[in-house]
Design goal:
This protein is of the alpha+beta class and 531 residues long. 47% of the residues lie in helices and 21% in strands. It is built from 12 helices and 15 strands. The protein has helices at 8-55, 58-64, 70-84, 164-204, 209-225, 244-250, 268-274, 316-354, 358-382, 386-401, 421-438, 496-506; strands at residues 88-92, 124-130, 133-143, 154-163, 229-233, 239-242, 280-287, 290-301, 304-314, 405-408, 413-414, 446-453, 457-464, 510-515, 521-528. Strands 10, 11, 12, 13, 14 and 15 form a 6-stranded mixed β-sheet that branches. A 5-stranded antiparallel β-sheet has the order 6-5-9-8-7, sandwiched between helices. The protein has a 4-stranded antiparallel β-sheet with strand order 1-4-3-2. The radius of gyration is 54 Å and the shape is rod-shaped. The chain starts with 7 loop residues before the first helix and ends with a strand. Mean pLDDT is 81; it is low at 481-493.
Length: 531
């Protein structure tokens, strides 16, 4: 970054200073012109009031009747001028001859200026330049009877004036107040602009507009390009940002921004994870039909927590493949175990032959083959789908290794599979695994599987002799994270039954749990016409 760059805060400061200066200059100019107009209007009103007062004075009218009016009027007019702080009080005849003037040399000379409507009996005001310079003056009539009534006889005129210089001097006395007010406004404005600039500089981290623009462009491009869902939650547990992938995975839209996380309808476990204040790496959560890997971590800036960053990855396909892989692994382990058992049995048969006990060797081998073949024939005969058959045979071998008796109910009859094989493996495999875990610590270890289905519907029942589901937890057992195991397990612990629920809902089926005839739990899944 160039050290000479102009930051946004600095640019805003300059603009604000310019605005403040322009506003203050404009306000001062308007205040000056308003004060000047007020002074001129005040001078006009004062000159008119003094002129009317002089015209209504009996002493003036009596002096007009004498042969030398100036002897009385001049001293009286000067006294009024000084007392009223005006610049001239001139009493004149109708022919403009002055009877009084601040300059005695002007007495007897004609009055300079317009008389307007005064000779006709109506007061008149104007700004005019006379012997004393520019002035605001008023000219009023003097009536013979002193009544001032319209139509009365006018015998003289009175003109009172205030020079523009006096008005300017009075205006100059008000300028310090205007200047002080302007200085206060300017100082306040500049201080406010500086404080705003300082705050803006902190919020923008001293960046210029070009840098902010590029950062936004990069940020927007990254949000749309990243293949992981990204969710940002502030310290008030409100969503502040989510990218396109997060909208898709969580089935949200732009209206989610600014809303509390608790109001978005997430599963309870996901809501707790998003609102967690500690880091939670690679948690697995179910959201509708998706399996998500969720990472949450506090977001901090300069040691201050600003919210939580949540990343989301779609784990649905991987989870399905992992389930199938677990099944294959179980089959492989079963085959390996059976290989060892077959080797042991073969060694036994060979030893019996070597000992010359051929008949006993033949009986032993035939008995073992009949038991294995009987189980295979029973499974294949009642279950037409090869994947489900292989799963049952593998789970049977796996159960035998764990000392569990896995029985296939005599009523099992699966002529067709109305759902995808992958979903069938998810449902049956997880229910059997759950049952095997439930009886692992029991003395009587029995699991019974019953399958009934056709192209129209499917029923799966898996019962065990375990401890069963605690009272009142029939609904909670299907939530993600629920488990009867007390030991610490992986992050995905308790996910099996939740995956079963997800697969069942995919086909609008239903699932429930009751107490089995064996004393443990009995899980029933119904899909299609059986639901």
């Amino acid at each position: 970054m160039s050290p000479r760059r102009s930051t946004v805060a600095r640019q805003i400061l300059v603009l604000q200073v310019l605005v403040v200066v322009v506003v203050v200059v404009g306000a001062v100019t308007l205040a000056y012109y308003d004060a000047r107009r007020s002074q001129i209007a005040g001078a006009r009103d004062r000159a008119l009031a003094v002129a009317v007062s002089v015209a209504d004075t009996p002493q003036v009218r009596e002096a007009l009747r004498t042969g030398s009016p100036s002897d009385t009027i001049q001293p009286f007019a000067e006294d009024v001028r000084r007392d009223s702080h005006t610049d001239f009080v001139v009493v004149m005849a109708l022919d403009r001859t002055r009877y009084s003037h601040p300059d005695p040399a002007q007495i007897g000379k004609p009055f300079i200026g317009d008389l307007g409507t005064a000779p006709a009996g109506r007061a008149f005001t104007q700004e005019y330049t006379g012997t004393l310079g520019p002035s605001m003056r008023a000219v009023v009539p003097v009536f013979a009877d002193g009544s001032g009534a319209a139509g009365g006889r006018v015998v003289a005129l009175v003109s009172v004036g205030i020079t523009m210089q006096r008005i300017q001097d009075a205006l100059a006395d008000r300028l310090p107040t205007i200047a002080l007010a302007a200085a206060l406004v300017l100082g306040t404005g500049l201080l406010g602009a500086w404080l705003i600039s300082r705050r803006l500089r902190r919020q923008t981290h001293g960046l210029g507009e070009g840098e902010i623009t590029r950062m936004y462009e990069y940020y927007d491009a990254v949000l749309h390009a990243v293949r992981e869902g990204l969710l940002l939650v502030d310290t008030e547990d409100r969503v502040q940002l989510l990218n396109d992938e997060a909208k898709r995975l969580l089935d949200l839209d732009d209206s989610a921004v600014g809303r509390p996380v608790a109001d978005l309808g997430f599963p309870e476990s996901l809501t707790r994870a998003v609102l967690a204040t500690d880091s939670r790496p690679d948690e697995i959560h179910l959201v509708d039909d998706a399996v998500l890997v969720v990472n949450t971590a506090p977001a901090r800036w300069q040691g201050r927590e600003v919210g939580t960053v949540v990343t989301l990855r779609d784990h649905t396909e991987i989870q399905a493949v992992a389930g199938e892989l677990d099944t294959v692994r179980g089959l492989a382990e079963s085959l390996r175990s059976q290989n060892h058992e077959a080797a042991n049995r073969l060694h036994t048969v060979v030893s019996l032959v070597e000992m010359g006990r051929t008949e006993e060797a033949l009986d032993f081998a035939t008995e073992e083959l009949e038991v294995a073949q009987l189980l295979t024939d029973r499974v294949v005969g009642s279950v037409s789908d090869p994947v489900v058959s292989a799963l049952l045979l593998g789970k049977t071998a796996q159960a035998a290794e764990r000392g569990v008796q896995l029985r296939i109910d005599d009523r099992t009859d699966l002529s067709a599979l109305p759902i995808e094989q992958r979903d069938a493996v998810t449902i049956l495999g997880n229910l059997v695994d759950n049952a095997l875990d439930a009886v692992s610590e029991r003395a009587d270890r029995v699991v019974v599987v019953q399958l009934q289905g056709s192209a129209a519907g499917l029923t799966v029942r898996v019962s065990d002799s375990g401890a069963g589901v605690p009272a009142g937890l029939d609904e909670q057992v299907f939530r993600r994270g629920w488990s009867t195991k007390t030991s610490d397990g992986p992050v995905g612990r308790g996910l099996g039954l939740a995956l079963v629920v997800q697969a069942v809902r995919k086909y609008d089926g239903r699932i429930g749990v009751t107490t089995s005839d064996l004393g443990g739990a009995s899980f029933l899944v119904e899909i299609g016409e059986t639901a």
